[in-house]
Q: What sequence folds into this?
């Protein structure tokens, strides 16, 4: 029997045509679209990863700035004005303001949309956020460098102070070595050095060496120091020291001469009083030690004597009225300048003779030397050092 094949051929051709069209649609439209979405999704993942890295870098820079700020505050609390060569470094550090802002918080990324163009819009937004975070990390790092620089300037200033403050000469070798080592550690601290710890160690080493020195000097002193008397005048200056056991108050002749001077001044309506008289070795040690701690040794030495070198320990010296340079131009200060010699006193540290006496002008500091010598010194304009041809310079 004969079968009509065409009856089957027509529907089969239709099915094939549909399949071909479907295949063409898949190959020409859906596959490229899917590939574009995949590529865009990969770009988004990379962008998010880069932004996460930028968030971490900004947070790290912010933490470093906050740590530098904490270190600056701690430095200010351990460094006094007397312990720096240049106090303006402390002022600069105190003026530093740390502005770290809030922690960086990235914006949420929405679930990937269906088409590549929409995904790329998100990629662009994440990229802009990354650039802003990177910029913030750079400015935080710059701020951190500025704060750290101000801290390092303070440490350099403490180092300069230390270089200007000789190792206490009678400190035992181990204390002296510890001081020298602590001082040199301040010279060029490593980038990650704990500056507060370095400065604290230095201050401790200095205090320890100074205390050991004082202890050692006392035994040296008892064995070897004798008062220096030239032509009947007891000398106490930076070159000549007197024993730590010397003195027990103002001498009777000093007190009598002051009473006479005070009475004559009072008759003229001037008020003279002793604001600081005799000082023992121990009290001078405390006063001088306090000046060294607050001002540094170089500054303290211009106006305060080291223990054993103070005229106040002689019992022949006192400070009048207000212990200020301004006293020199008060009616009392001017009268004392012109009349004290008639009672046996001299203004021991006159202006213009700082390099010779070793002290700044002290219009309030009077020394009893007796009427003949006082008159001669006032007449000639000579200091005690010039008159006797002696120096006033520490040998240690
Ligand atoms: Zn004095």
A:
């Amino acid at each position: 029997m004969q079968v009509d094949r065409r009856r089957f051929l027509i529907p089969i051709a239709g099915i094939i045509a549909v399949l071909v069209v479907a295949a063409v649609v898949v190959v020409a439209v859906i596959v490229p679209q899917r590939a574009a979405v995949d590529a865009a999704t990969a770009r988004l993942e990379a962008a998010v990863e880069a932004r996460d890295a930028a968030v971490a870098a900004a947070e790290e820079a912010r933490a470093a700035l906050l740590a530098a700020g904490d270190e600056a505050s701690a430095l200010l609390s351990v460094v006094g004005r007397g312990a720096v060569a240049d106090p303006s470094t402390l002022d600069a550090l105190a003026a530093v303001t740390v502005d770290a802002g809030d922690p960086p918080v990235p914006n949420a990324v929405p679930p990937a949309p269906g088409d590549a163009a929409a995904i790329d819009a998100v990629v662009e937004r994440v990229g802009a956020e990354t650039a802003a975070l990177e910029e913030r990390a750079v400015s935080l790092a710059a701020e951190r460098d500025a704060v750290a620089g101000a801290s390092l300037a303070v440490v350099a200033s403490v180092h300069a102070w230390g270089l200007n403050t000789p190792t206490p000469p009678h400190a035992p070798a181990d204390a002296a070595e510890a001081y020298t080592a602590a001082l040199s550690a301040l010279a060029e601290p490593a980038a990650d050095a704990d500056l507060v710890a370095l400065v604290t160690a230095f201050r401790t080493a200095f205090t320890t060496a100074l205390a050991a020195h004082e202890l050692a000097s006392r035994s040296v002193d008892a064995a070897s120091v004798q008062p220096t008397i030239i032509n009947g005048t007891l000398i106490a200056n930076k070159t000549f020291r007197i024993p730590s056991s010397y003195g027990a108050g103002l001498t009777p002749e000093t007190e009598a001469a002051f009473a006479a001077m005070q009475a004559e001044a009072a008759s003229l309506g001037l008020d003279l009083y002793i604001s600081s008289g005799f000082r023992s070795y121990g009290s001078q040690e405390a006063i001088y030690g306090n000046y060294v701690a607050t001002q540094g040794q170089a500054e303290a030495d211009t106006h305060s004597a080291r223990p054993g070198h103070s005229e106040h320990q002689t019992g022949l010296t006192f400070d009048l009225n207000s212990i200020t340079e301004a006293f020199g131009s008060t009616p009392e200060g001017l009268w004392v300048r012109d009349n004290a010699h008639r009672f046996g006193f001299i203004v021991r540290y006159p202006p213009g003779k700082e390099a010779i006496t070793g002290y700044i002008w002290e219009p309030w500091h009077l020394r009893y030397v007796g009427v003949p010598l006082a008159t001669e010194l006032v007449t000639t304009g000579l200091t005690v050092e010039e008159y006797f041809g002696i120096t006033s310079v520490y040998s240690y």
Remarks:
- Residues 19 and 290 are 102 Å apart (CA to CA).
